[in-house]
Design goal:
A six-stranded mixed beta sheet has the order 1-4-3-2-5-6, covered by helices on one side. It has four helices and six strands, in the order ββαβαβαββα. Helix content is about 30%, strand content about 20%. It is of the alpha/beta class. β5 (about 100-105) and β6 (about 110-115) form a beta hairpin. The termini are far apart. The protein has helices spanning about 30-40, 60-70, 90-95, 120-130; strands spanning about 1-5, 20-25, 50-55, 80-85, 100-105, 110-115. The protein has a single domain, classed as Glutaredoxin (3-Layer(aba) Sandwich), CATH 3.40.30.
Length: about 130
């Protein structure tokens, strides 16, 4: 995926082994995605040890940049937000048909849970602590 700086690419090889991973597929224009992201940021201290990868399919950088700037995502070292553009490989892999979609992986890289609706922050914390 292309990060919001419009220059840097991030892919599976950048994911750190041995750390929990949360993948969030979102739409920068989606109100549910915006509310979820606001809740996530309010509770970011609960996710300090979690890699958070936020992926959208925005065809260009401006909508993504507006979203990341709105929530100040660039100041969090554990959050990477980018667009896969029109490739839809992540969207197709997870069969995303509604956003936000969230997938959680444990420290062994095993899928432990996924959400096809807006998850509760508490549920994410509980699942990622397993």
């Amino acid at each position: 995926m292309l990060l919001s700086d419009g220059v840097t690419y991030y892919n599976a090889s950048n994911v750190q082994q041995g750390k929990p991973l949360m993948i969030v597929y979102f739409d920068p224009e989606c109100e549910h995605c915006q509310h979820f992201t606001a809740d996530l940021i309010k509770n970011i201290s609960k996710f300090n040890n979690v890699q958070i990868v936020m992926i959208c399919d925005a065809p260009g950088i401006p909508p993504l940049k507006k979203f990341t700037d709105r929530f100040g995502l660039s100041k969090y070292q554990n959050i990477k937000a980018g667009t896969e553009g029109l490739y839809h490989s992540t969207m197709n892999f997870y069969h995303v048909d509604i956003t936000p979609f969230t997938a959680l992986y444990n420290t062994k890289g095993e899928l432990i849970s996924y959400y096809r609706n807006v998850p509760k922050i508490h549920d994410l914390v509980v699942q990622l602590s397993k």
